[in-house]
Design goal:
The chain is an alpha/beta fold. It has 7 helices and 5 strands. The longest helix has 14 residues.
């Protein structure tokens, strides 16, 4: 089974039903839910997802969404050492650096994101949801 790391933007595409990316991102969810891939999100992604979902929907919807995500995805923890490691990566965006650090920590074989250019320095192949589905 392939281990993958899923970026925050892919999760939000499903939760906020982003028309342009919803279908492919939903297929990533289904692969995770069925156990076809071992899919991770970072703990920091879940707090971001809660905050953004609460702003666009409701508090109840945000809580429900995060609870559902916890049933579907594995969580890569984040601590002070992870933050220090992310700061040492050659990535300007701290959130992207932390995502990559977490992906490396869990030994992901792929990083699924809509921001592949943000991971151009990555040792892990970054795929859009559509590209990952094509290659899988």
């Amino acid at each position: 089974m392939k281990t993958v790391f899923v970026d925050t933007n892919v999760i939000l595409d499903v939760l906020l039903q982003n028309d342009n990316f919803f279908q492919d991102s939903l297929k990533i969810f289904k692969l995770a839910e069925l156990g076809t891939v071992r899919a991770y999100v970072s703990a920091s992604s879940l707090t971001d997802i809660f905050y953004i979902t609460r702003k666009h929907l409701t508090m109840t919807a945000a809580r429900s969404a995060v609870n559902a995500l916890l049933d579907i995805f594995h969580v890569a923890g984040v601590d002070g050492d992870d933050l220090k490691g992310a700061l040492d990566l050659p990535i300007l965006d701290m959130e992207d650096a932390l995502q990559l650090w977490c992906a490396q920590k869990i030994r992901a074989e792929a990083l699924i994101t809509r921001d592949a250019k943000g991971f151009s320095h990555s040792s892990i192949a970054a795929f859009s949801p559509a590209d990952f589905l094509e290659s899988y």
